[in-house]
Amino acid sequence: MLGISGIAHVSLTVTDLTRSIAWYREVMGFEEIWSLERHGYKKAILGDPASGIIFSLTEHGERSSGDAFSEFRTGLDHVSFAVPSFRELELWKARFADYGVPHTDILKTKTGAVIVFRDPDNVQVEMYAPADDVDWAFAFPPANSDNRKNF
Q1: I want to staple 11 with a disulfide (CB 3.0 to 4.6 A). Which of 56, 132, 141, 142 is the partner?
Q2: What pLDDT is recorded for position 140?
Q3: Residue 65, phi-psi category: left (phi > 0), alpha (psi -120 to 50), beta (remainder)
Q4: Which residues of 117-133 are buried (b: 16+ CB within 10 A; e: fewer)?
């Protein structure tokens, strides 16, 4: 039987490869594995040392539309990275604040908890903790009604 064992990598088109590499390294902690330039495009492969996730960024040069990402167009909607716990979401929230990255509060979803933010090309990115890893009483006490922001 045919099967899929996982996702090999996610690749995003970016408008400025140098800027995006710097952002994903500084803010997200990815490391650059290798890069190349040929046939009118530039590509960088980044890896997360903790999870082994491979992330690719591509700048298409003259063929690029140059417009900002929108999840309302057909194609990618967003990228969501799993984190091991609600506590880890709190640490990411603090990191985003330190780096001046606009983000939502930690939001409760039907399946877990999430922080939503955007990369330099406006790609919606999430940090997500599955429900099994969230202490709901601690994370969302009853007095906290709706912590959503317009994002």
Answers
A1: 56
A2: 61
A3: alpha
A4: bbbbbebbbbbbbeeeb
CB atoms within 10 A of CB 140: 17
Looking at the chain, how many residues does it have?
Answer: 151
CATH architecture of the domain formed by 7-61: Roll (3.10)
Q: What angle do CA 95, 130, 7 make, to 5 degrees?
A: 85
**pLDDT band for position 142 (50/70/90)?**
low
Q: What is the dihedral of CA 89, 91, 95, 98, to 10 degrees?
A: 120
Overall average pLDDT of the 127-145 stretch = 66
pLDDT at 131: 78
CATH architecture assignment, domain 76-146: Roll (3.10)
Q: Where do the domains of the chain lie?
A: 7-61, 76-146
The pLDDT of residue 135? 63
Confidence category of residue 141, pLDDT binned at 50, 70, 90: low
7-61 and 76-146: same fold? yes
